[in-house]
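Crash report, auto-generated. Payload:
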Amino acid sequence: NAGVTQTPKFRILKIGQSMTLQCTQDMNHNYMYWYRQDPGMGLKLIYYSVGAGITDKGEVPNGYNVSRSTTEDFPLRLELAAPSQTSVYFCASSYLTGTGSSPLHFGNGTRLTVT
Amino acid sequence: DAKTTQPPSMDCAEGRAANLPCNHSTISGNEYVYWYRQIHSQGPQYIIHGLKNNETNEMASLIITEDRKSSTLILPHATLRDTAVYYCIVGLRGGSQGNLIFGKGTKLSVKP
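Recovered output after restart:
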C-alpha cells in the first residue's frame, strides 16, 4: 500500500492564479481531510469528507473548494491564490469501524508559496 | 482553542527514556487521548491513544492519570530519529477524526 499520496510536493503560484492539490489514498478509507500548517503552528482543518459525494467545511474553508467523486481521491482547489494561502497542505484519511474511527493517516504534504 | 497544554520543547539524551507530559484538565468522559508526532517536513504520524487505562505498543507507552486530567507519553529508549514535534490531542473516537485539534505540540530534541 502506498497510503496517502499528495502531488505536487512543491509549487509556486502568482497572486490570482488557480491550482488543484491532488490527494489519493489506496486504503479504502471513507473519511478524508485537508489541513494547512503555517510555519511554527499546528494544523488547521480546511475541509473534510465522510464519503464519496459528501463534503463539509472545517475551521478555515474560505478560499478553497473540494470535491469527492470517488472513495480514493479528494482534490483541493484554490481558485484565486493569495499570499495568505502560503502554507504546507496535508491530506489525511481514516475509516470508521463499529467501535470508532481509525487513527489519521497523513500524506507528506504540498508546500505552496504564493507571491 | 487547543484542549491540551504541552511544554514547547524538551531535550533527551539518546538511549534514555523520553517522558512527554500533557495536561487536559477539561477532558470529557468519552474523549480519548491521542498522540501523534511530526518529523521535520513530513506528515504527522500516529503513535498511540487511550481512554483511561495505560496503553503500550511497539512505539511507546501512554500513562493516563486516574482523574484523566493529564497523561505522559513515554519513549523507552529514545533515538536520534525520535527528534520530532509531539502532539497530544483529546477527542471523540467515533465519527470524523477531523475534529482533533493539533496545537503547537512539544518539540523533542534527542541528543547524542
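Post-recovery validation: Residues 9 and 107 of chain B are 4 Å apart (CA to CA).
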